[in-house]
Fold this protein.
Amino acid sequence: MRAFALALVLVVALTLVVGVAALPPHGDPSGPVHTHVGAHYIEHGVRDTGLRNLVTAVLLNYRGFDTFLEVIVLFTALVAVLALPSATRPRRPGAPADDGGDRADAVPVSPVVFFVVRLLAPFIAVFALASLYRGHVTPGGGFQSAAIAGALMIALGLVFGRERAARLVPYGARAWLQALGPLGFALVAFLGWRLTGVFLGFPADEAAYALREAMVVSLEVGIAVGGAVVLAQLFMALDVRA
Amino acid sequence: MSAVFDAVMLLLLIATAVTVARARDLVAAVVTFGLYSLVLCLVWQHRGAPDVAITEAAVGAGVTSVLFLLTIAKTARTER
């Protein structure tokens, strides 16, 4: 059995090494990455989509359905976790906590961690906002912003206790915020259908610049807020009592 | 220089991955996995994908480590 496992590992490793060795050099202009659809995107991307950033053009336009389904996958993951019998569901603020005090669930953290999180939190928040705001023209975007903001909320939850961190997500709007990614995508997709006749289409002509920017930014905001809330709620669902 | 950097990073990735797979102490495995994500983050940055690097650092090294640690706190610390 051990010999078989070793042989299997060696065969797979050899296959991977041979495969990687056969890849064209990084940045080779004649590589299939640059001659296949990539060449079309680079040549026609700006005219096809009207977007100034080719990554955004691919992510939201050429591969818009992929991104839509990614957002749905993220939401489905949260639904699956919340469906677990052992998951901790968010409590209405003011509802009697079953453990007594407000900070009873805060794990005691070292003063160093406490200080560093408090010091860095505003900067991380600004970074998340900046990568959202500039995301569709520079590296960054909705998913990056969601990851940064979600990690920030989890860090705050670790330091201040999740009861207090949970207040970052308003209780009443919780369900809507969790679903903001798929909801925003669906709204923009139907709007695009109405305007261009194509589901998830964007008006590409120069005259529709403001409208197109608004649609793209709405998508990014939905992805960022929805994704961050999903990450934070995944953390909140894993309640641990000492 | 670039090739040396790549080689060192890839060796670190393999080393951390093997360490994660072999660790009996799951907390040690999670910490090493965070290190793996950090090295991978540097690789993405070096390969000119800063957006992927940001996500790798936040989700790979940050969020998943916390979720794994909480799961360990709820279950058991060592592999059986």
